[in-house]
Specification:
With 373 residues, the protein is of the alpha+beta class. The protein is built from 8 helices and 18 strands. It has a 9-stranded mixed sheet. The chain has a 5-stranded mixed sheet with strand order 3-13-12-15-10, with no helix packed on it. Helix 3 (79-95) crosses helix 6 and helix 4 packs across helix 6 (185-210).
């Protein structure tokens, strides 16, 4: 894997408009290239302020104590056979805003292919990457590059990203957001997105049942032809100063749900239990998918479930890759919270999906949850 540090090739570029209305181009180093060229100290723009320094996790939750469900058991015909899984599903969505899903039915061979094309892209030189795919900072942050570049004074995350829209069909027509290399990238990722959609639909239906709601209470907002699946691939290279920066700042997702897989290396994702003010490393077997509750599902449920607050830490000796699929109703869909059973009250407002996501992008990068408008 050879790259060049000459000229613009070692930087992600983004155009911003300052407070005076003038356009400026900001250049942020490609972190993968920094590591390829053997840096010993990370640039200042990635270093968190001293009062906000990144301390190692004070706890690592065990696999036995982290919510996990079997999708095969949730599919069981008899309620008695799946009641325990429904309870675990509801508790995980309420307490952590995320859970592991095993026996999900996505073919292992397809997951291997997804991991292969993702690794294949990030093994390319920077020049080959730029020939393979474009960058669209103003179009929902798609393509290869960096999200949420707003100011020369912000502190950046230790990550490079690749983003595209896998659904609805035609949503990326005219945009060079699908890598041409590896040549089978789009075909494999779109096949995986449809498998992940099926997992998401089953989780949404089962969760409604687990909360004693109509089974279609959440799924009714998702039209097969217009609902969106956004793919974001995060690459976290080894970091020489892991306690000085983060791969991802603490946040919740602006989705209904997110479906994630990671490559072989784990230990980088941390989450916070809703009743505990401590970061805990998520135990994540590579054969399981991680499903996180997003802000939109928290709104739909009227707070019965909570969007998961999570972050990514950096590691000194290993690289980490994850693939996140953000599953949303169409932008023109209005969602509304479920009324309280006793009072008929709601704690959340009705909201248009597109308005919420645009608001999220407007205030990002933010530190923490944004379940409001």
């Amino acid at each position: 894997m050879e790259g060049s540090t000459s000229g613009h090739d070692s930087y992600h570029e983004a155009t911003i408009v300052d407070i005076y209305g003038s356009s400026r181009t900001l250049r942020v180093p490609v972190v993968q290239e920094l590591v390829r060229h053997g840096i010993n100290d990370i640039p200042k723009i990635f270093i968190k302020p001293e009062l906000d320094s990144v301390s190692p996790s004070t706890s690592c939750v065990s696999l036995d104590n982290f919510p996990s469900v079997s999708l095969a058991k949730l599919r069981a015909m008899r309620l008695e056979d799946r009641s325990q899984e429904l309870e675990k599903l509801a508790n995980g969505a309420k307490e952590w805003g995320m859970l592991l899903v095993c026996d999900h039915g996505i073919p292992a061979s397809l997951l291997d292919h997804v991991k292969g094309i993702v690794k294949g892209f990030f093994e390319l030189s920077i020049e080959e990457k730029r020939k393979s795919v474009g960058t669209y900072a103003s179009t929902d942050n798609m393509g290869y590059g960096r999200n949420y570049v707003k100011s020369e004074h912000q502190i950046f995350e230790w990550v490079d990203r690749l983003t595209m829209m896998a659904a609805p069909k035609g949503s990326t027509d005219g945009l060079n957001v699908w890598p041409q290399n590896p040549p089978n990238f789009r075909d494999i990722m779109e096949r995986y997105a449809e498998e992940a959609r099926n997992v998401g639909d089953q989780i949404l239906e089962a969760l409604a049942e687990a909360l004693s709601l109509e089974k279609d209470r959440f799924l009714r907002y998702f039209d097969r032809e217009t609902s969106e699946i956004k793919v974001r691939i995060n690459y976290y290279p080894p970091c020489p100063n892991p306690n000085s920066t983060l791969g991802l700042n603490p946040h919740s997702d602006p989705s209904a749900i997110s479906v994630l897989i990671q490559m072989e290396n784990s230990g980088g994702l941390q989450a916070m239990h809703r009743n505990q003010n401590v970061w805990q490393t998520v135990p994540w077997p590579t054969d399981a998918v991680l499903v996180t509750v997003g802000d939109l599902l928290e709104i739909m449920s009227n707070g019965r479930v909570t969007s998961g607050l999570h972050r990514a830490i950096t590691q000194p000796d290993v690289e980490r890759l994850s693939v996140a699929l953000f599953y949303n109703p169409a932008p023109t869909t209005e969602i509304e919270p479920v009324k309280n059973d006793q009072t008929g009250d709601v704690e959340y407002k009705k909201v248009m999906v597109g308005d919420y996501i645009n608001h999220y992008y407007k205030v990002s990068p933010a530190y923490g949850k944004q379940t409001t408008l």
